[in-house]
Design a protein that fits this description.
Two copies of one chain form a homodimer. By secondary structure, the first copy, chain A, is an alpha/beta fold. The first copy, chain A, has six helices and eleven strands. The radius of gyration of chain A is 14 Å and the shape is globular. The termini of chain A are close together.
C-alpha cells in the first residue's frame, strides 16, 4: 500500500474516455489511495464514450484543495463540459498553487487551459488540441508522458501505463 | 519494472467485460510485462459489453504454455464463447499443469470449468455462476480475491484492485 492516506479527486462528466477515467481510478485504489469521483452533485450519473456508467461521490462544490492530495482529469469530451464549472476551475487552480499532483490525459488539457495553469509549462495532450495547448502558453511536446513539477500529462489511452506510473510517483511520500 | 521479460496471454471474444479485460492488461504492461491478446486469429476484432474494441494479436492456436508465463481471462459473456475452443481449453489446462498463474474474474470461471481444472480448488466467481463452479468441484468462497496455488479468482469489476495485485504477486520472480 504505497499510497495509504492519500485522497484523490477524479473529475467526471458525460462522454469521458472509458479507460482514461477507470484505469487511473482503479490503479490508485490498488495502490491504497482513496479516490472520489466528482460530478455536478453527489449521485449524478454520467456515461463514458462507450456507455460505462460513473456515479459521482461528491459535487464539484465539495472540491477543496485542502481535502485532496491530487486530481486526475480524464479525456474524451468530458473536459469540454468540465471547463464550464467555476468550482472545477477554482479547484484545479488552487491544487496547482498548492503544488499537488494534477493528471491530464488526451483532451483533459482543455480544463487546465481554462484554469489558466499552463503558461510556460511543459506538457503534452492528444494531437487534436495541440494548438489550444500552445495558444495557452504550453511548451508542448509529443511524448507518452511529460512531468513538469506537479503536472503530469499524456496523450491517449495507449500511454496509460506511463501516465499512471508517473502520477503515482509524484504522490510518493 | 517488476515484471520485465514476463509474457502474458489475455483471452478475448465478444462481450468481454470492459474493465475486467483492460484493467489487468494495462496494469501488467505498466509493470513491464508483455501482454498479447488472443482471439480466433491475429487481427480478429471483438467488442466489449459497452463496445470498446479489442484486436487479437495472436490466434488461440498460437497459444503454447511454453511461450507464456500466465493467462488472464476476463468476464462478461466472452467466457461463454471462449469455452467452445479446444485450443483455449488445452492452453488453460496445460498452463495449469505447468503451475503458471491463471487469472479468472466474474464469468471467466466457465472457461476453467470446461478446462476441468477446478476439482478441489478454492475459488470465487460472480454469484450467478456459483452453482456451475460448485458442480465442477470448486470449493467456492465469497471473497474479493482467492488464491489457490497458481489460480487467482475474483468476483466483479469492484474487485479489480485486489485481483491485479494478487496476480502480479504470483508472477514475481
Amino acid at each position: 500500500m504505497e499510497l495509504k492516506n492519500k485522497k484523490i479527486a477524479a473529475l467526471v462528466h458525460d462522454l469521458y474516455e472509458d479507460l482514461e477515467l477507470w484505469y487511473p481510478v482503479i490503479r490508485l485504489r490498488e495502490a491504497g489511495a482513496e479516490v472520489l469521483l466528482a460530478g455536478e452533485k453527489p449521485g449524478a450519473q454520467y456515461k463514458s464514450k462507450h456507455g460505462i456508467p460513473a456515479i459521482a461521490d461528491i459535487g464539484y462544490n465539495d472540491l477543496d484543495k485542502d481535502n485532496f492530495d491530487g486530481v486526475i482529469i480524464p479525456g474524451g469530451y468530458a473536459p469540454d463540459k468540465l471547463r464550464r464549472y467555476p468550482d472545477v476551475l477554482a479547484f484545479v487552480k488552487q491544487t496547482d498553487e498548492a503544488g499537488k499532483p494534477i493528471g491530464i490525459i488526451c483532451h483533459a488539457g482543455w480544463v487546465t487551459i481554462s484554469a489558466d495553469i499552463l503558461k510556460n509549462r511543459r506538457a503534452t495532450s492528444v494531437g487534436a488540441i495541440k494548438d489550444d495547448m500552445i495558444n495557452a502558453g504550453t511548451d508542448w511536446v509529443d511524448d507518452a508522458v511529460v512531468v513538469d513539477k506537479n503536472l503530469v500529462s499524456s496523450r491517449t489511452p495507449a500511454d496509460l501505463p506511463f501516465y499512471a506510473r508517473a502520477f503515482i510517483q509524484l504522490l510518493q511520500p
